[in-house]
Structure formats: structure tokens, C-alpha cells
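Q: Okay, next protein. This is PAS domain-containing protein from Nonomuraea angiospora. I've checked the sequence twice, so it should be correct. Can you predict the 3D structure?
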Amino acid sequence: MGRLAATVERLREEIRRAQRAAEGRALIEVAKGILVERLQCGPTAAAQQLATLAEQADLTQLELAADIINQAARDRISQTARDFLDGTRSERGPREVADVAVRLRSAEIGMLTATESQAVAQSLLEHALAPLGATGVAIWAAGADASLTLVGHAGFSAAEARRWRYVPPGVATPAQRALIERESVWSQALSEVGLPSIGMREAPDGGRVTVPAGTGGRILGVLEIGWPAPLEPQPPQVIRQVEALADLCAHTLELPAGIGGTLGLAELTDLADALPDAALVLTPHLDGDGNLADFRISHINPRFVDPAGRPAGAVSGALMLEAYPLAADEGGLFSVIERVHATGEPFIAGQMTIKALVDQVPLDNIATVSVARHGEGVLLIWRLQDESARLASLLQHAQRLGRIGAFEEDALTGEITWSSQLYTLHGLEPSRPPIPLERLADYAHPDDADGIGRFLRKLLHHRLPDSTTFRLQRSDGIARHIRVVADPVLSPDGRLLAIRGAFQDISSQHWTEVALAATRDQLAHSEQQAAERNRLALQLQRAIMPPTRGPMEAFDLNIAVRYRPAEHEHLVGGDWYDATILPSKQILLSVGDVAGHGIEAATGMVVLRNALRGLAATGAGPSQMVGWLNLVCHHLTENVTATAICALYDPETRILRWARAGHLPPILIRGDEAMELDLIGGILLGAVSEADFDEGQVQLEQGDIILMYTDGLIERRDRDLHHSQEQLLRTATRHTSMLEHRLDYLLTHSNSDTDDDTCLVGIQLR
């Protein structure tokens, strides 16, 4: 198998060399033909002359042949070669410039001699694009509906080609974008533009270029080129090379009229004559360089009406911009036709202004316009709308949107006229007779009869405009809320001639008002309940935690506490503090914070604070008490979580033992320094049923101060907690004469901004 594979690869290489040699010979033969015509000599003399000139110029015969063809052709390829030469004359030698011309001409010969689109793509990649670093090329044919069909590819796998054989109109791809925008799209990488395309799985970060390929103003397809890596900005010379290759693709994509599902000019003319609206068949008019300059009106159908009122003969056969010069305005009709002809994307507009110019007087006409490309021709269809028809259309549209129906009753003949929307409001078929105003109460809710009677008396007897609302009972069982407005039409001598007015379905407005009223009532009730709950929570909190409390002295300790409630009652929280002397002569100190606000947080605070007092009577240590308190929080409350610190001070040993459950550690102030006690383990209360809590202790010295607090003292929205703790340590070192003054100073200068409850407990050893 290995030998067979090597043999196949060798034969393929020989075929490629033979193809390149054939293409090279084709270029040389073309150059010989040019020399025969210019020098009026025979083929042999021309061959000798070509060899002599190549030797004198230090070029190969192939390079010289490409240069001779460029001089004779004066086409896009030759212009590209000249631009490349002008832009790089100081940097590159004549051989490098000639190499560009050879590659482009070789690609041209390969495309012209190829028997199918796959060979065209292969020739492009091999001769012209691979030297630029490209690894893939796709040739897309544009359909009449702006769709894209893959007609040739090279460098992409067969699986990718099958996935991308057809791109429907409107699907955003780089090729579709180049087609619609009618300009080249250079993307550094597919992943950056975010557009899917062929080969995106194989090289998502590769560069991609899509260039529209067309002739005579019509885009026949798109040339797409892929690179394996991100594409850096290219010099103008390379950009012009790629555009020249797109021009070559355009010639291979051209199809005769009537092939590929499009209509020829004769079939398009027959189609225009069969249409019920005015139609024009336009064909492109090219300038001397083959570029689109205008469109010729090749045919007009019998229903055509000129917007300026001219006879059909004055328009048929004329150029579009000669017949309708103002159509060249930006965004006007001509730009629409040019875009449809270029891309094949059809255009339909319900209302569009068509401008004409006759005797220097501009005329504006509103029309329904449709433009579509068929082969080389463009079919333009329009239907002019007079002012009355346009206003009637707008009025009907407004009535439908506003659920309004108009009516008129002739007071002399009794004839009633309803708009179509009024039949819909009443749920009646248009074939049914309209309902007279005097019988309106028969179709309304009985409770609305008095209001309808007052409306009719004022309208018919007093002959004054009036309005009323009622509930319409339709025959299909649906009830609608209707507002009716009417005006009497009077003769000069005051006789009633007619009644004109309108019915409007205001059911949506009515039910919206009902829903808003119900919502307002519900909100008021909810606000009342919330206010009552907050009032109860505040009373409960103040009963347990009074905002002010005098200093305490116990043995050799001064004890001070401060409590600052939330400023807003709806933010009543679950912060608590406690300082009490136990039967064991030890002093219990604690602070805690229940998560949340309101009555639930306040009741949770009461439960935990009282539970801790009861647990302290057992004589257990701080860690044991916090462990039991966790069981209380987990099993005896409903979804309550909290943080807490529990401390016991022994007056005999002057040792403070403490434990924490997710709370900030106490602060020790000794001399001129303030520091946090070493952080010990302890998770949030109520998080899990079984948890271990560490216990720490500190030997107090005379003058030492211990501070315990809740996070409402330091918490801020604009900075992290660590920064606020450092600020608190700096504030706590300020000297004061009394412990109470130190706590007041801390509350005053705290930098918190969350408006939360704050508890602060301080002890000082005398």
C-alpha cells in the first residue's frame, strides 16, 4: 500500500507539472501571436524574437510572455501588475514584479481551460493565492434571490463543502455580507467577526477575505479566500491582486440569459405584459469601460402610467435617469434598482416616493413598488396611489389599531352606514343590517340603559354632541366595554339631517383600570401589614434591647454597652448584646446578629439571647455554650441563621475565655495599640446541626479594654470588610477619659453606610 500511495503521488505530481507546463506554453503561444501581429512576421521569427528579448532582459520566456500580454491587453490584470511595479519599484526587482504577472496570467489560463468549477478553484489557489499564504478558496455563485451556491472550492475538506453547498438568502456569512454590501470584506480572523463560513471548524482563527465578483454592475458571485492564521493588514498591491482574481471569477460565472432558472429578456417582457399593475423592463446600460452607468427602459406594459403624465412613447426606450432624473437621489428608486441588479436581492415597499421632473417642476407620487432581477434584466412594478386612496388607507389602518368604527345615520331616509371595523366590534357579519342608535339599549347591559337614554336625548332632542360608555352584549356571548361619540349634522334652519360618530372598544383600558385599582388596594393592604409587622418588631426589639443603658461595675470590671437601631423601621434587624453576672460569679458577655430584618429577625434574636442566658447557668464553657446554641438555632427555630460571640470573664484569674460562630473577633486595646484577638474556628449558627467550636482565652492586664461589636459598626457598600476593620483599629486607639466616651466616639466616627443595627460592648479592667 505504501508503494502504491507513493506511485499515485508521483503520478499526480507529474500531472501537475504537465498542467503548469501546458499553461506556461499557452502563455508563450499567446505572446507569440501578439508578436506575429505587431511585427508582421511568422511564428518562427516571433519565437526567435521572444527568446532574444527574454535573454536581453534577464527574464524567462514565461515572464516576458506575461509582460507582453499585459502590454497588449490593458485589462485589470495588467493594471494590477503596473500598480505593483509602481508601488514597489524601489524595493523589488523586475523579476519579482514579473512573477506577479505570471501568476495572475497562469491563473487566468488555468481558469479558461478548466472544464468545471472545481478546477477553476484549484487553479486560483495553486497559481495566485498559495504564494500569498492562502490555504483555501471558495467560489460562490449568487442566485436571483441573493442566495449563494458553492460552485468550486480548493483547500477545504469534502465534508465542509457538503455542509456549505448552499446558503439561503438572509443568512449572515462573510460571503453574504460582501454580496449585499457590494464591497470587499477583509477579516483578520473569523472568530473576531463572529460570522460562520466554510472552513470555520478547521481554522476558526484564520483570516478571511470575501470579494464580490461581477461585471457590468451585476454581482455574479463571491470569491472567498482563507488563511490558516490571523491575517495582517495587506498592502494595496495585494488587495488589487485579489480584486483582479475576483474579476476573472466573474467571467467564469457568467451564464447566458434563460439558463440557471432565470428568465431571458423575451420571457421577462411577456411576464410584464401579463401583470395587472404598471411594469417596466430595465436592462443595464454600460459605459465605455464596461461599468454600469444607467438602465434603459426596454419595455413598458399596457398598464403603465407615467408619474408625470407623459405618454408611454416618451418613456419607452429612454434611459432611467433621463426619464426620471430625481430618482438618482440618495436612497431613491435608482439606488434600489442598482442594488437589486447587483445582488439579486428583491425589493418590496408598500409606500415609496417616486419623483419625476417635467418642465423643471418636481412631482412626488406615492406608489407600491416591487423590484426583482431576472437574468440580465430588472422588472420594476409600481402602483400609484392617489391622495384620497392613501388617506383612506391611513384612516382604515388607524381605525383598526384604535379599535374604532365609524357610522352615519341619515335622519331623513333612515339609511345607516357602518365602516367595516364597526361590524367587527359588534360581532356582526357585513351582510347583517346595522343597529340603529335608538335600539342601542337592546344590545347593552340593562344597568347601562339610563346612560344610553341620556345620551340619545341630548343628541336627538337637544341636538348637541355627546358621548357615553356602555357594556355591549354581543350575539356570540362576548361582552365588550364600548365608548360611543356622536355629533348631530344640522341644516342652516336647524333641522336634524344626520348623526355621525364612532364606536371605540375600550375593554382593554377598562380592565387595565380595574386591575390597577385592585393592585392599588392590594398594595395598600400589604403596606399596612408590613407597617404593623415593623411596628411590632421595633417594640419587641426596644423592649429587649433599650437604645441607652447606664454603665455597670462588676468586681474589677467597668462594663458599657451601646445599641444603635436602624434608621428605617422596615430595616429592624436581629442584633443583640448581653452582659450579666452569673451565679458562678463569672461575667457573661455576648453579641450576636440574626440574618435578615423584620419580625422574624427580632423574634429569632429573642430566642437566641434568652437561650444563651439559660445555657450559661449550666456552668459550661464558651465553646460548649455556642455548640448548644447552634443546636437551638438549627432545631428549635425556623430557618434562622446568626453569628455570635460568647465570652466568660473570671474575676479571680482575670482570664477572658471566648468562642465565636462566624462573627468578627473581639478587639484588645492595650496601651496605645489596638489589635484583633487571634481568629479561632467557628461556623455560622444554624448552618449545620453538628459543629465544633474552638475556644480562645486572653490574660487581661490592668487598663486593658475588650471591644465586641456587630458588623453594622463598620460595614460599607464601597469597600471590603478588611479595609473597614483596619479603619476601626485606628479609631479605637484614641484616648478618652471614660469607657462610655470611647464607645460613643466609635459610634460617632464609624464609617458604615448600610443603615444596619449596631451593637457595641466594652469592658475595661481597673
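A: Here is a summary of the prediction. The first strand starts at residue 136 and ends at 142. The CA atoms of residues 8 and 752 lie 81 Å apart.
Q: Noted. On to the next one.
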